[in-house]
Amino acid sequence: SNNTIEDLDDDDDDDRRQAEEETIKTSYDEEAITHHDGTKLVYFASATPSQNVIGCLSALHKDAQTFVDEIKCVEYVKSTTDKVFLIIDGAPSTTLIETIGPLIQIDSVFVYSPSSYAFPTSSQKQHNYILILCENEDTLYDSIVKSCEELDKQTAAFSMFNKKEKEIYDLSKEQGSFLFFQLFKFLLKNLPKTYEAKKTMIRICRNYYRRNLTELANIDEFDHTYRSSDAISWYMKETFLYKFINKTLQTQDVDLIYQFRFYITDLSEQLELIFKELKEKQKDVLKLYRGVQLNQDEMTDYQNSVGNLISNSGYLLTSSERSVAYDFATKSAKSEGVVRALFEYLVDLNVVQNIVIADIGQYSAFPEKAHFMIDIGKRKKN
Fold it and tell me: Which of 7, 120, 266, 307 is the most buried (most CB within 10 A)?
């Protein structure tokens, strides 16, 4: 009779396992999502492909591709313009690891390995993709879903900044836009500073730099250590904030500028404080220089506004040393067709009222460059 009971228990265990497997498959089907058209799932199996993995991927994407040949797998990835989620089943060869490293199509690599296999990578900084280790199908499924959501957020962040940027306002033609921005800046300045405002800005930055470990570390540092009095120091580091703030202001997108109000307000307030100190110490005429590399449209805007009052849409970094500005203007360009320009500004501190100029040399890693910073939305003669 004991044998009969054990046999029945074994049968029950088999039934339970089968029921669990069916439940897992059903849950995949019920929760099935279809990736947006710009993403492909590519499954590479170093041995026989796992039907469980194929079932998992099929639930996520109806056109998931399976390969057992490394060369064909890599050729397929290279042939697409879409973002690729590459699932590697088992231990990949050194050749495969080296080959996929520079491929910009690969967004994330999911290493599916039920064993304690360690992916041979010394540092994620050596490649462009995000690496995720998955011990079972459930972890793999959840990781792909999460990565897809994060990619969508990053794409949305990219689209926020994918707009035409404008270097200057010509006030003879755009007085209305200038006055609107002045009013908007005044409103931002008088809004209460909240944790939510900071959190919103940080979230956008993290989404944008999702795969950039260096900038993500900078964002974490900012999140944990930033104080209002650090605004200029952070700008001068030329990290994510420097890039974001200028790009945000030059899009002239009110919604986007509002998202970064937490930092923009701090930066302008700090500049105003230093400007007051400057006016108390100096009463002479400042001669400042600014070296820039402009695209042709920006250069045309400057040429067409000669003799008019203008206002730059972003913060301006200048130097009291002409050689510093000249060196910046003549350094190697990142793109072709740039126009190198050197601007000279004369500022009479005895009469200046509408322009905020701050001596920020103490905040620079290179104080010998004698940096002065001009606040946003200030009028000057071109």
Answer: 266
Rounded distance between C-alpha atoms, residue 341 and residue 382, angstroms: 13
Say if 150 falls within a structural domain: yes
Task: Report the side by side order of strands in the sheet with 39-45.
Answer: 65-67, 39-45, 83-89, 106-112, 130-134
Do 215 and 340 belong together in one domain? yes
Separation between Cα atoms, residue 207 and residue 155, nearest integer Å: 8
pTM: 0.74
Give the integer Cα–Cα distance in Å for 352 and 338. 33
Q: What is the pLDDT of residues 222-242, one digit of tens each?
A: 999 999 999 999 999 888 998
Q: Which domain holds residue 93?
A: 31-158
Give CA–CA dist 104/82, Å, rounded: 10
User: 3-state SS string over 2-49?
Assistant: HHHHHHHHHHHHHHHHHHHHHHHHHHHHHCCCCCCCCEEEEEEECCCC
C-alpha gyration radius of the chain: 28
